[in-house]
Write a structure and sequence with these properties.
The chain is α/β, with parallel strands linked by helices.
């Protein structure tokens, strides 16, 4: 069976087309991402502005052509933070069905975190170690405390990179005062996370795709090495390397970031916020190990489908 999964994120729409065998194994056929920037100019107002609204619909029309070309038999599309919190989010979903023929399911933060856990778990060997998963989206950031076998705690926070960018409007390059204000904001907003970490004591951070992919590529470029490859689903990030690259990126201008090897253009705007956020988490909660997963929500959907196939055989 050939399936397509679409993650309608706040900043990026992501498409994954995969072949699922009767034996419960999946093979990636095709993937694509489009920087729709649904929250552009209005994310904290709870409204999708006309231009990004149309960008989103156009992206789904493009994906529909790819889906038809690849002869997909099942399509699963999920809307996350920007659409679920927008007053015209239902209008977007209605138009997606009418114009592109794609039925979109809006999921809440709990469900989003569940799918992220399933995707990351399929990519990273946690070795029974209590871990903190982190997925930085444009509209929200999900945290999951877990091990290989179960989720202990999970929560979605309205702390996506696009929301933070619009709220703090960082300078170019960002000022120390703004960094201080941002860290204070994290202190205020992440009290529940702090309580959960004190309770469950995770010792490693696992970043889910997105900005974390750029961390790997930037660090590799710093050492003139190859970054992400199709053959690996997890990476361990040396914390010393992380701090060196984080410092370089955080204090760079937009033009300097645009020219950085290992940084794709769609991440130039939000990578500073992402580095600051992750740096805060690593330091605040004293994470001794830092891993990244190339899998995220899309692969979590596939993992869930594989679970259903296996249940059907038993």
């Amino acid at each position: 069976m050939r399936v397509a999964v679409i993650d309608l994120g706040t900043n990026t729409f992501n498409l994954l087309i995969a072949e699922i065998s009767d034996e419960g194994v999946f093979k990636k056929i095709f993937s694509d991402r489009i920087p729709v920037k649904l929250g552009e100019g209005s994310i904290n107002s709870g409204f999708i502005s006309p231009i990004p609204f149309q960008r989103g619909i156009d992206s789904l029309l493009h994906y529909k052509k790819l889906i038809d070309k690849n002869k997909v038999s099942a399509v699963k599309a999920f809307a996350t933070s920007a659409i679920r919190s927008a007053s015209n989010g239902k209008d977007f979903i209605r138009l997606a069905k009418e114009v592109a023929g794609i039925v979109v399911e809006t999921i809440d933060g709990e469900r989003e975190a569940e799918l992220i856990y399933k995707g990351v778990s399929a990519a990273v060997d946690m070795d029974g170690i209590p871990s903190l998963m982190m997925d930085i989206g444009g509209g929200s950031t999900e945290f999951i405390i877990c091990d290989k076998y179960q989720v202990f705690w999970k929560k979605s926070f309205l702390l996506g990179a696009a929301r933070l960018l619009e709220k703090f409007k960082p300078e170019d390059p960002i000022h120390y005062e703004t960094i201080h204000d941002l860290n204070n904001y994290f202190d205020e907003e992440l009290e529940e996370l702090s309580e959960a970490i004190n309770r469950f004591a995770p010792v490693q951070l696992i970043g889910s795709s997105g900005a974390f992919d750029s961390f790997v590529d930037l660090i590799a470029a710093q050492h003139n090495k190859r970054g992400l490859t199709e053959r690996k689903t997890e990476y361990t990030i040396n914390l010393d390397d992380f701090y060196v690259v984080a410092d370089k990126v955080i204090h760079s201008t937009w033009q300097q970031r645009l020219a950085m090897k290992g940084l794709i253009p769609i991440r130039v705007d939000m990578i500073v916020i992402s580095f600051l956020f992750v740096k805060y988490i690593v330091e605040k909660y004293k994470m001794a190990v830092f891993k990244t997963s190339i899998y995220s929500l899309k692969e979590g959907v596939i993992a869930e489908m594989l679970e259903e196939i296996k249940k059907g055989r038993t």
